[in-house]
UniProtKB/TrEMBL annotation:
The lineage of its organism: Bacteria, Pseudomonadati, Pseudomonadota, Gammaproteobacteria, Vibrionales. This is Lipoprotein. PROSITE patterns: PROKAR_LIPOPROTEIN. It comes from the Bacteria.
Length: 147
């Protein structure tokens, strides 16, 4: 828990360099086990731009995607049997693999609606958790900013 607080504090400090008009919608770190994924929803109105930032904190490489809510529902339908290797996903932005240094989507003007950041640690995509690693989990920090 202390490690998570320190990491959040460090990332928050790096976000303080943002323009004063930037609003941090969400900032968190997640631990994702092998063959699991995490997603969180965010909403965009027509007057906003969004910048999503991600960084790998620890353990095995993983991938992140910015997708529409409709695409997330398709993902859930396709992966309910855990057949991640044969799933499809149409993303607006792909972070593959997520680097250990912070990377970002850049400011994007999206249509009004619901979107998700999806972080996966599965056989989907170009990065999969290794079978020989003692810890097959991934620890990723992300933030969603608006202006």
């Amino acid at each position: 828990m202390l490690k998570r607080l320190i990491l959040l504090s460090l990332l928050s400090t790096s976000l303080l360099g943002c323009d004063s008009n930037d609003d941090v919608k969400e900032l968190d770190s997640v631990l994702i086990k092998k063959n699991e994924y995490f997603s969180t929803q965010f909403n965009v109105d027509g007057n906003q731009q969004v910048n999503v930032k991600v960084s790998l904190l620890d353990n095995v490489p993983s991938e992140a995607f910015i997708i529409t809510e409709e695409e997330y529902k398709n993902w859930e339908d396709e992966t309910q049997t855990n057949d991640f290797a044969n799933a499809t996903l149409v993303s607006l932005v792909t972070f593959s693999p997520i680097p250990s240094s912070q990377t970002e989507s850049g400011w994007m003007k999206l249509d009004s609606g619901d979107y998700r950041i999806l972080i996966e640690n599965t056989a989907f995509g170009s990065v999969s958790p290794p079978s020989s690693n003692i810890s097959n989990s991934t620890n990723v920090m992300y933030s969603i900013l608006y202006k």
